[in-house]
Amino acid sequence: GDMVSLALDITAEVRSKEVLRRAKHRAEAASRAKSAFLANMSHEIRTPMNGVVGMAELLMETGLTAEQRLYADTIRNSGEALLVIINDVLDYSKIEAGKLVLHQEAFDLERAVLELVMLMQANARSKGLDLLVDYDMFLPSRFTGDPGRIRQVLTNLMGNAMKFTSEGHVLVRVVGMPFEADGQARLHITVEDTGIGIAPDKVQHIFGEFNQVEDAQNRKFEGTGLGLSISKKLVALMGGDIWVESTEGRGSSFGIALTLPVETPLDTELLRVPPGIRRVLIVEPNETSRAVLEKQLGVLGLETVACASAAAALERLEEVDLVLSDHHMREMDGMELAEALREGGHDMPVIVLSASIGSAEQDPARRFVQAVVQKPVSRPDLLAALRSVAPEAAEEAEASRAMRVLAAEDNRTNRLVFSKMVQALDIELEFAEDGAQAVARFQSFRPDIVFMDISMPGMDGKEATAHIRAIEERGGGHVPIVAMTAHAMDGDEAGIIGAGLDHYLTKPLRKEAILGQIREARPKAARPPEMPDQSDGARRNTGLAGEDMAAT
Ligand code: ADP
């Protein structure tokens, strides 16, 4: 019945907990202060850097000797390289300081991926790499999310994959996990490469700040070591995951998982393969591309036969309803294969997949081919081609299309003004924001006319025109390119026309002048740009005070 009591003095423990709590608080405050400091610094550095880069650019437009030009060019390039690093640091510290907000909007994921692939295609080709896309056939393409940030993450992963791969391929795969009831899709996007890979003990480490795999093999690659840590933080901000699987010496596969609301569900009607096509012969030398095509057609319910060359294809024609062939192949290309088929008395439709669609269109053997599809192949293009070659759809394919107009203009306001000026027209309009994009879009979009701003950051209008003319050299016919310049200086016109541009407009642009150029460029296959039932009065209210484009 007595009492036993035990007393324990925990004063020291309580005190030390309090000390730890304060220390944690201080550390967090210091970390926030560091991030805020970095963000401010980056911002403060950016502003004068823009002056340096901009002025170096302007300097290059003045009369310089070759030596001076080299110096100015170096200033500009170094400045731009620095801006890229500063942007990384700025992004990083913004996220750390909790200041980065996502801008949710509807966007087309398939298109975003294809555009990135197009942009990197030239680089891939020069390295001898195959850059491929495998977008799940049953996945919708329009989602709601922050397309800019998703693109940023993919650009980083794809850029790394290209950087650390010297032969083989880089494959972007997009698959959707079963849909959740609330209209969201769980997406897995993986970027797979056949590059140097990452050692197991380094794998976790690479998502940290300023961390690069340190070894002799890796030292030749440039970078800040911030890309993956930014990507990781961005993906986390979007509520997703990022991971990597890698085998040293064999390659890596970086993946991100995101759950995004579906903006437009997939129209399953589009996936219905027309009757009459059952067995498809695939001719594709690249093993990975071939596997992707086999899989894609397989899920559509088609039977496939796959060959690596035209010669092999000619041996395997039994019961084939359709031939789907790559364009550029060694020995016999896709166009020649079509010709050989017709000579052999085979009349099944042939679809050619081509990375240089212009040269395919110009090929004398084009008449033996029912459809040419741009590579990397988008699902809508592939499905449209399948429908167009089905027997009952043949006449429909003759119907004329709208004209395609490409405008390269780096200034956002001017892009808006341009789109307002042509908004009443029955045309397809795409923009490029710099010269490099203009070249990429020229290949993907196949415009009938290009409006080209001359001074743009990076690759300017004259350079972009030179690239486009070089592409046309390889086939594809001459597309008119109209220069748009801010100032008409003496001698400018000669310089511009000398650079391969066909026409010349000075800012402020006149709506009538733009219309005139578009009208003149119309090919026979396209409808006239003006809609017949629209009077001028109906078009007048564009929401802009004047209809002239401001000079910038
Ligand atoms: P950076 O590329 O600027 O160095 P990142 O954060 O993007 O910075 O990448 C960090 C490191 O991870 C790279 O330096 C490289 O060592 C490794 N790494 C990233 N991607 C790959 C890849 N696809 N293959 C091999 N190593 C990679």
Topology record:
Elements (H helix, E strand, L loop, with lengths): L10 H50 L5 H31 L8 E4 H19 L2 E6 L6 E4 L1 H17 L5 E9 L6 E10 L33 H11 L3 E7 L3 E14 L14 E5 L3 H13 L3 E5 L2 H5 L7 E5 L7 H10 L6 E5 L2 H6 L8 E4 L4 H11 L13 E6 L3 H10 L5 E6 L2 H11 L3 E5 L7 H13 L7 E5 L6 H7 L4 E4 L4 H10 L15 H4 L13
Parallel strand pairs: 2-4, 8-9, 8-10, 10-11, 11-12, 13-14, 13-15, 15-16, 16-17
Antiparallel strand pairs: 1-3, 3-7, 4-5, 5-7, 6-7
Helix pairs in contact: 1-2, 2-5, 3-4, 4-5, 12-13
Bound molecules: adenosine-5'-diphosphate.
- State which percent range the strand residues make up: 15-25%
Distance between the termini: 96 Å
Q: Low-confidence segments, ≥5 residues, pLDDT <50?
A: 393-399, 534-552
**What's the overall geometry?**
globular
User: How many E strands?
Assistant: 17
Structural class: alpha/beta
| Main beta sheet strand tally, sense and closure | 7 strands, mixed
Kindly report the average pLDDT value: 85
Chemical compounds bound to the protein? adenosine-5'-diphosphate
Number of discrete helical segments: 16
Q: Work out the helicity level.
A: 40-55%
Using only C-alpha atoms, the radius of gyration works out to 28 Å
Give an overview in words.
The relative contact order is 0.07. Helix 1 (11-60) packs antiparallel against helix 2, helix 4 packs antiparallel against helix 5 and helix 12 runs parallel beside helix 13 (461-473). Strands 1, 2, 3, 4, 5, 6 and 7 form a 7-stranded mixed beta sheet that branches. A 5-stranded parallel beta sheet has the order 9-8-10-11-12, sandwiched between helices. The chain has a 5-stranded parallel beta sheet with strand order 14-13-15-16-17, sandwiched between helices. Strand 11, helix 9 and strand 12 form a beta-alpha-beta unit. It has helices spanning 11-60, 66-96, 109-127, 147-163, 227-237, 287-299, 310-314, 334-343, 357-362, 379-389, 412-421, 435-445, 461-473, 492-498, 511-520, 536-539; strands at residues 105-108, 130-135, 142-145, 169-177, 184-193, 241-247, 251-264, 279-283, 303-307, 322-326, 350-354, 371-374, 403-408, 427-432, 449-453, 481-485, 503-506. It is of the alpha/beta class and 552 residues long. The protein has 16 helices and 17 strands. The protein binds adenosine-5'-diphosphate. Residues 156, 160-161, 164, 193, 195-198, 206, 212-213, 218, 223-229, 252 line the site of adenosine-5'-diphosphate.
